[in-house]
Amino acid sequence: MEKDLRRLKGIGPKAIQKLAEMNVSSLEDLASRPMENDYEGWAFFGRKDEWKRLVLQARAFLLPKYVEPSMVGVENDFISLNGASELGARIFTTNVLELSENAVVIDKYTDRMVIKPRGVAGAGQHGSEYYKMVFEKALERVPEKLRRLSAGSGSGGAGKINPLAIDSDQGAYEIQNISFMQKQFDVYLKDLLEHRLHETVNYGEEISIQKLTDYLKQVSGTMYFDSLLSLVQQYALCDAPIESNGQRKMSTGFNLALLGAPGTGKTFATVDLIVGNENDAIPAHGLPGMNRYCGGMTVAQFVRIAQAYQGKKFNFVVTEFNDWFKYPGMVENLKQALERKWLKYETVNETIGPYKFDSFFSVNYNTEVFDRGYEVTIADPNFNAVEDRMLCRLHRMSKERFLNIIDSLESHLLGETEYNAQRIRDHLTLVYAIQTENPLVKNMFEAKPVELETRTVSAVTDAAKKFIGMVNADQISFSPRLIKRTIQMCCSLSLLKYFQTSESEKTLKQDEEALNLALAFFAEEVCVRSQEKIDPKKLLEKIKEK
Are residues 475 and 525 in the same domain? Predict the structure, then answer.
């Protein structure tokens, strides 16, 4: 039986001798040892991880009576699964004797058996073609319901994710995270419908842009506009159709970027206010379960996990967006993602995609701010093209802004800030559920498209023409996409007024408040893009002239 033990990776004469002293003389003896709290095994082999690896290897060579489904994973060139432990166990139990010699790898970091072909193509029955045949035969014996795992039909949109089509482990693992986030949304929505529906509808009948602005001024002082943009983007995530004469022209969803020096309050607006900050006692105001925080994530990791979000509309919150542009060859993928198009990532070792990205971004990135305008710290010639695909706002650390941050911090620490997070979050969640036709509310409320009014289009295009008339340069420093984003913002503000429309009104329209706010945003951004050669206040006065 000593010969059997030598089949294990890393087992030599010294290890055989140690095992013999523990009365372990066969694979059966080793497989029956516990992995946890086996202090004798840990002491002999010096490391807990090494002992677990040996026990798992032994179990992989034997009958499945030692194998728990949760301990089994499947990973190879042809299959990439997550959350499919039952499927993994089925494949393992039907093929363990064939695959054990070369196909079982032990992941000591997760204590899972991973079935992974390691043969070399062309090496007879141990080649990759042989393993492909074995796995395909195994899959034939697996029920269809186990092969196609649904990521749920809740908040993130319709459609099933087939783990067999995910190209990376990270993408496969993300399916579980998506399910968890969707459950968060569904649980919150059910609680709202059971306990706070009447109050939420009443709040929706009274809400206005001015009231929301007044609240955000109380929370964040003169920096309220950043928070307002973040909340408007949350409403826009339902991606409601924007129609003209009954034809769809665009949708409400947009990407948001806050630019500026570190410490200017960007993170408060995009992260703390939206997903909450327990350490600072800031409650969440944004959609529950719909914001995927990407702090510390590389752009390569994003491209891998984003494949699991196909057909779903989440918001990716990136706090250090400028770091993502340091990776060679990623700018084009980011441009594609921002336009919600097809992504593909290829290296020598892997290929991810192609797949269609349907979600949105809310990002911060640092800039070097000068007396006029700003200079992005990203030295990439393509960055302007990426920036053109986002709704942007500049943060300059002026003396006034610094004092405002101090005042807001003081109010918060002294408990003077009164948060009204739940009412806003309830209203936002209910409007989102209605507009995405969530099954829990589909028979209660009707989804309504946003009607793009002629006066909205005319007002924004006229504003652009007036700006061009004030510029003394032949080259225009902003993209026509800015006009589209301004219109999107105006239409997104219409979603706040859902409960102020009658049942007979089948569309949502822009009011004067929404249009004025959108034009103020346009004036500020277009002037920033021109390095502030024109005063935004003067431009806004010009825009308002009849």
Answer: yes
